[in-house]
């Protein structure tokens, strides 16, 4: 049933613009923008098979929480144990009633929630998966994370067949290394969210 104020919605246009994709044609990948704030370093990987630098990411396991998948994939691909960082990420997710005064009575939900510190994903990259043998449109969800770039990575964490080399670079050099513009945008978004949240990157 349409709500009051929704009478001007063009349902036919909505119907035409809406599409359905079965689960097996939807690729979901999770990764991190892992930063060492003290040293202004960014964790990336060199993909020997594709001959490109990229952000650490990978396919989630069945029923795995997407947030957990991002940290697991980062650890598996790099050996480093990143920790998610809570930021003021503008998001379309909403606060549950239990988190609001008087269980939300008199509270008007904003279209975009801002100023709330959370571990929501910071952005996505989407594209038709060229490596899939069957039709698949992949979306990669990224979370902001931190790690000490001088720490010792765990050994032998990569899956069989993976040939990735972890590398810490200066955040200022991100455009010189990352192959994909969309991933560069994700890194810039993470840095912006960190600054908005009061985190200093490379500043004592």
TrEMBL record:
<dbReference type="GO" id="GO:0006754">
    <property type="term" value="P:ATP biosynthetic process"/>
</dbReference>
<feature type="domain" description="Nudix hydrolase">
    <location>
        <begin position="25"/>
        <end position="191"/>
    </location>
</feature>
<dbReference type="InterPro" id="IPR051325">
    <property type="entry name" value="Nudix_hydrolase_domain"/>
</dbReference>
<dbReference type="InterPro" id="IPR000086">
    <property type="entry name" value="NUDIX_hydrolase_dom"/>
</dbReference>
<dbReference type="GO" id="GO:0006167">
    <property type="term" value="P:AMP biosynthetic process"/>
</dbReference>
<dbReference type="GO" id="GO:0004081">
    <property type="term" value="F:bis(5'-nucleosyl)-tetraphosphatase (asymmetrical) activity"/>
</dbReference>
<dbReference type="InterPro" id="IPR015797">
    <property type="entry name" value="NUDIX_hydrolase-like_dom_sf"/>
</dbReference>
<dbReference type="InterPro" id="IPR020084">
    <property type="entry name" value="NUDIX_hydrolase_CS"/>
</dbReference>
<keyword id="KW-0378">Hydrolase</keyword>
<dbReference type="Pfam" id="PF00293">
    <property type="entry name" value="NUDIX"/>
</dbReference>
<protein>
    <recommendedName>
        <fullName>Nudix hydrolase domain-containing protein</fullName>
    </recommendedName>
</protein>
């Amino acid at each position: 049933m349409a709500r009051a104020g929704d009478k001007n919605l063009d349902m036919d246009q909505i119907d035409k613009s809406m599409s359905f994709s079965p689960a097996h044609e939807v690729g979901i990948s999770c990764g991190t923008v892992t930063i060492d704030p003290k040293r202004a370093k960014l964790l990336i990987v060199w993909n020997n098979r594709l001959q490109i630098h990229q952000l650490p990411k990978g396919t989630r396991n069945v029923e795995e929480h997407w947030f957990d998948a991002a940290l697991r994939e980062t650890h598996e691909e790099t050996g480093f144990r990143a920790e998610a960082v809570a930021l003021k990420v503008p998001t379309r997710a909403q606060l549950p009633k239990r988190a609001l005064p008087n269980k939300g009575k008199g509270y008007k939900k904003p279209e975009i929630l801002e100023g709330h510190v959370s571990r929501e994903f910071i952005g996505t990259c989407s594209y038709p998966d060229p490596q899939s043998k069957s039709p698949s449109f992949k979306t990669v969800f990224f979370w902001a994370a931190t790690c000490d770039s001088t720490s010792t990575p765990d050994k032998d964490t990569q899956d069989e067949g993976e040939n990735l080399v972890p590398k810490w670079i200066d955040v200022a050099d991100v455009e010189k290394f990352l192959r994909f513009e969309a991933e560069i945008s994700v890194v810039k978004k993470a840095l912006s969210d960190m600054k908005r949240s009061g985190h200093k990157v490379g500043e004592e």
